[in-house]
């Protein structure tokens, strides 16, 4: 097996581990939030009991919610502490996994002439914190979610007063009911937002760790290949980029196509599950004399990109109902009839064409 094929296998294995670890962190972060919900509900009930419904004003509401606001801030501080600990773990795991993959896959005879440059996971973690994902730093997302949760509480209280609800009814509308495991309260939306941010922050951290290592080893790594998760939840943007090559730079450029890197795998959108896989130089590109390498090392270090399944190839093998789920019935029908190829479903910037645009392109 070639070096690059082995590196892709290791990337897939680590991506599976990454998703499992991410779920573990999500549960820890949500648990940290939930531990504060009982306190928040009690403080809210106490504040509402002190409020005279006949003299309700926005100013009095803001003053009344001071204790609730403090507990909400504490809840989010605890949740963010759990997330940052999770990001440290992800930085460590991604850095170690990628360094081991490179050290194991690349022949020792090649590494003797072109040593692997190591990176500390602490540096990767610091870089992840200092770089935005989806337009904001982690600190900015934390502030946004905390404020959003408080706004939802404030609006629910105001609406409750307008509707003439009792204190218990208002509190239940915010926290939810035990019978529904509190999933029917307005706080459930903030939990979902937090889960999305946790998953995206961890993918961002793992990608940052890989990028730092790839850039440090630019003498060994010539390109990066986009690898998307092959299932029906894969986004439009990741499907079209799957299997495509980009330069190994801080801001990668397309190789042999025109679809931009944008924020890259793991960052292209919220909950992005794509990863990139390093493509090493051949021994010739490294300037190594063939006589200095064993035959096996020469054969495996040939620089070839593994011809594994792309999303388009995977989709073509799926049953019609799954193709319909992914593309929509009409677009999938065109694909099955051979009237379009998978790449025809997108423009040259990687944006999916609407059915009308696609039909116009086909002259129909």
Short description:
The chain is mainly alpha-helical and 364 residues long. 59% of the residues lie in helices and 5% in strands. A four-stranded antiparallel β-sheet has the order 3-2-1-4.
Can you walk through the features of this model?
With 364 residues, this protein is mainly alpha-helical. It has helices at 3-50, 58-64, 66-105, 108-113, 121-130, 138-162, 167-175, 187-216, 236-241, 295-300, 311-316, 320-327, 329-336, 355-361, and strands spanning 221-227, 245-247, 254-255, 275-280. A hairpin with a 6-residue loop joins strand 2 and strand 3 (254-255). Helix 1 (3-50) packs antiparallel against helix 3 (66-105), helix 1 (3-50) runs antiparallel to helix 8 and helix 3 packs antiparallel against helix 6 (138-162). It is globular, with a radius of gyration of 26 Å. It starts with a helix and ends with a helix. The model has no long low-confidence stretch (mean pLDDT 89).
Which helices and strands, and how do they pair?
Elements: H1 3-50, H2 58-64, H3 66-105, H4 108-113, H5 121-130, H6 138-162, H7 167-175, H8 187-216, E1 221-227, H9 236-241, E2 245-247, E3 254-255, E4 275-280, H10 295-300, H11 311-316, H12 320-327, H13 329-336, H14 355-361
Antiparallel strand pairs: 1-2, 1-4, 2-3
Q: What features would you highlight for this structure?
A:
364 residues, mainly alpha, 4-stranded antiparallel beta sheet, 14 helices, 4 strands
């Amino acid at each position: 097996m070639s070096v690059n094929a082995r590196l892709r296998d290791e990337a897939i294995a680590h991506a599976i581990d990454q998703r499992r670890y991410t779920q573990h962190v999500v549960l820890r972060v949500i648990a940290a939030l939930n531990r504060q919900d009982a306190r928040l509900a009690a403080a809210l009930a106490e504040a509402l009991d002190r409020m005279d419904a006949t003299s309700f004003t926005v100013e009095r509401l803001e003053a009344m919610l001071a204790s609730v606001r403090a507990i909400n801030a504490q809840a989010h501080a605890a949740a963010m502490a759990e997330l940052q600990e999770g990001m440290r773990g992800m930085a460590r795991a991604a850095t170690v996994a990628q360094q081991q993959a490179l050290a194991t896959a690349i022949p020792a005879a090649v590494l003797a002439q072109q040593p692997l440059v190591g990176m500390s996971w602490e540096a990767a973690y610091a870089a992840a914190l200092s770089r935005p994902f989806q337009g904001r730093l982690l600190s900015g997302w934390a502030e946004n979610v905390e404020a959003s949760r408080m706004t939802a509480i404030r609006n629910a209280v105001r609406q409750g007063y307008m509707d003439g609800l009792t204190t218990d009814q208002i509190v239940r509308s915010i926290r939810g009911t035990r019978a529904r495991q509190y999933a029917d309260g307005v706080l459930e939306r903030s939990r979902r937002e937090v889960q999305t941010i946790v998953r995206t922050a961890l993918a961002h951290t793992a990608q940052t760790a890989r990028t730092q290592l790839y850039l440090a080893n630019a003498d060994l790594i010539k390109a990066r290949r986009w690898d998307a998760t092959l299932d029906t939840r894969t986004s439009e943007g990741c499907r079209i980029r799957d299997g495509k090559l980009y330069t190994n730079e801080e801001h990668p450029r397309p190789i042999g196509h025109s679809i931009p890197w944008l924020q890259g795998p793991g960052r292209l959108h919220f909950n992005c599950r794509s990863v990139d896989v390093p493509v090493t130089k051949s021994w010739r590109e490294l300037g190594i004399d063939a006589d200095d390498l064993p035959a096996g090392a020469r054969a495996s270090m040939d620089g070839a990109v593994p011809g594994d399944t792309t999303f388009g190839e995977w989709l073509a093998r799926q049953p019609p109902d799954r193709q319909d789920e992914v593309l929509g019935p009409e677009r999938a029908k065109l694909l099955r009839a051979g009237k379009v190829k998978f790449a025809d479903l997108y423009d040259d910037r990687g944006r999916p064409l609407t059915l009308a645009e696609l039909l116009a392109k086909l002259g129909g």
